[in-house]
Amino acid sequence: MKVRTRPNLQELDGISSLFLRFALGLSFLAAVADRFGLWGPFGQRNVAWGDFSRFVDYTAKLNWFLPHAVIPTLPGIATLAEALLRVLLLTGWRLRIIAFVSGVLLLVFGLAMTFALGIKAPLNFSVFSAAGGGFLLAASAGRKRLRKDDNIEGEIMSDESKSSPFDQPPPSSKPPESDGSCAARALPKSPSHLTSFTRQNARLVLIARSACAKAAGNKTRCRFRAAAVNFF
Q1: In the predicted model, what is the mean pLDDT of the chain?
Q2: 84-143, pLDDT tens digit by residue?
Q3: DSSP E strands: which ranges in the chain?
Q4: pLDDT digits (tens, 9 = 90+) for 49-87
Q5: Distance CA 76, CA 58 (A)
Q6: Out of 34-43, 115-124, 198-207, which region has the weakest mean confidence (pLDDT)?
Q7: Which residue intervals of 38-94 are DSSP H helices?
Q8: Helix and strand tally (H, E) in the chain?
Q9: Cα-to-chain-centroid distance, residue 201
Q10: How many CB atoms lie within 10 A of CB 147?
Q11: DSSP assignment, residue 38?
Q12: Where are the domains of the chain?
């Protein structure tokens, strides 16, 4: 009897994200190289521009609705942006933000092609597909960040579960001093509130203390955890 093995979706997600990242980065690289004639002169196979002057004319054709005074600056801005995005995509720096910006740039480029040349032009060059790939890459990078945060939460809960919260010394009847620390903000504000805590809620207090200590001064995360504990 054959046993079906379930594919590792996280592994597949990592491989597909890497492939998509390099595909977008190399696409930007190829487009920039074409504008400077690195693929050969205009007229050769798979050469769209061949030199920068033809790209300037093409940019003016796509952006016919803009004032003529800004047209000469657009090709340089677009080329610089694509070259920068290419480097950042290939290196993977701030991937979620860079992938989203790449998707927005490609979407704007596709809409400009649609208004100037018709809907078939961006579909022939798969501009909207590339824009969707940029947004998908940004979403994938965001999911990886959430999984990393979940793993950190799991480690904190695992550490706290090794010892019972009621093994700690009983709390003092004196209300906690407002020293501005994370632990003080995570604790209840009155002893009467503390007596109504269940075991689970007391454990949440200890988790909040540990998480705030590991946050290294991250006040926003500390306030969030303190609010979550006081809510329960």
Answers
A1: 75
A2: 999 999 999 999 999 999 999 999 999 999 999 999 999 999 999 999 999 999 999 887
A3: none
A4: 999 999 999 999 999 999 989 999 999 999 999 999 999
A5: 13
A6: 198-207
A7: 52-62, 74-91
A8: 10, 0
A9: 33
A10: 12
A11: T
A12: 9-148, 163-169+176-231
Residue type, 141: A
Return the C-alpha torsion angle 24, 27, 29, 31, nearest 10.
-140
Q: How far apart are CA 73 and CA 99, in angstroms?
A: 24
pTM score, two decimals?
Answer: 0.62
Largest distance between two CA atoms of the chain: 86
What does the DSSP assignment read for 156-173? HHHHHHTS-GGGSPPPPS
Question: At 167, which amino acid appears?
Answer: D
- 148-183 confidence digits (pLDDT tens): 555 555 555 565 555 545 445 555 555 555 444 444
Structure tokens, 169: 């010394």
